[in-house]
Amino acid sequence: MKSIVVCCDGTSNQFAADKTNVVRLFSVLARDDDQLTFYHPGLGTMEPPGAITDVGRKLRRTLGMAVGWGLERDLVDAYAYIMNTYHPGDNVYLFGFSRGAYTIRAVAALIHLYGLFPPGNEPLIPYAIRQMTGFNDDDGDVSEKFKLADGFKSTFSSIDCPIHFMGIWDTVSSVGWIANPLSIPYATKIPNVQHIRHAVAIDERRAFFRTNVLARQEPGQPQRDFEEVWFPGSHGDVGGGYEEGQNGLAKLSLEWMLYEAERQGLRFDHAKARAILTAAEAIDENATIHESLCGAWWLAEIVPKKRRQTGDWKANLAHRRVIPEGAKIHRSALTRREYKITLPLNYAVVERPVGFLADVD
């Protein structure tokens, strides 16, 4: 039995001085025959195959950010890696930030609907994705679409593949800045994941970064290990992406994610993790929150966008995110100096792990 770790980054994120928490997590992972690792850069970072000229490459990168063009390619790549490396009994770990978190959720949904194809069957993957996205079309009987999916799975798939752990940072509702190319079933309920951890930003206000929280468990449904925790800060303050020296808040959610993933069997280098969490810039619960809603982002606040829950179109107008009743809130959001948030009537407090990485000198 081995572990397979798949990491998908956010829009226009890649390895640079302004590392995301996905990059930081990937950098400390143990890599050997018992733990295989895969990293995918964000939408708009690298052009899809087929772009030849400089203009073509820049256009495709821009379209990747604007309309999410390339998301299907990212989904194909992540699914194919699992398809070609998984054997029954292996533990699959999925990590993602922002639109990369949406990609990770799409990977889990695709595996839930269709299982895994035999290794080497990459040409089948786009067909399965198109079938999956068709579930949200207005035309056609949904039950018939499920029958079609079952038939596709029984014909082409070889094995089911439960997801052992999913760790995601601040999934957003808009996959592209202008449009969402993939709207999929099971992206909020995700029934085939055994352990889920989702870090959500309290202070993000941009219209194109509205939160995409996971569905609560319904009464009578099988219990699952699920935690969605709200952290202080904007989108990048939770998922990372600012230059070193401005990530005191982002390292709070990284510490939490590493702790939770290790409890479920993920292996990583403690010395490297300790260095990231303390060197150059340590975790700082009172670090300055970045104001992400600035400059041209204000123009987007008056543009109506379709609401995922209601289906209506409405301008965001810099509205704050609403923390739902019964939410889990990280202790750092309650101890910050001169920090005011609107708390629900009922909430639970999540503490920082005590003694985590204490074995490192």
What do these coordinates show?
The protein is an alpha/beta fold and 361 residues long. It has one domain. It is 31% helix and 15% strand. β7 (305-306) and β8 (313-314) form a beta hairpin. The longest helix has 16 residues, at 99-114.
How many domains is the backbone divided into? 1
Order of strands side by side in the largest beta sheet? 2-1-3-4-5-6-9-10
- The topology string of helices and strands comes to EHEHHEHHHEEEHHHHEEEHE
What structural category do the secondary elements indicate?
alpha/beta
Distance from first to last alpha carbon: 31 Å
Annotation field: number of helices: 11
Rg from Cα: 20 Å
Largest beta-sheet details = 8 strands, parallel
Shape: globular
Number of strands: 10
Mean pLDDT: 83
Low-confidence stretches: 12-16, 44-48, 55-68
Which bin fits the share of residues in helices? 25-40%
Beta content? 5-15%
Domain T6SS Phospholipase effector Tle1-like catalytic: 2-259
Pfam family, one: T6SS_Tle1-like_cat
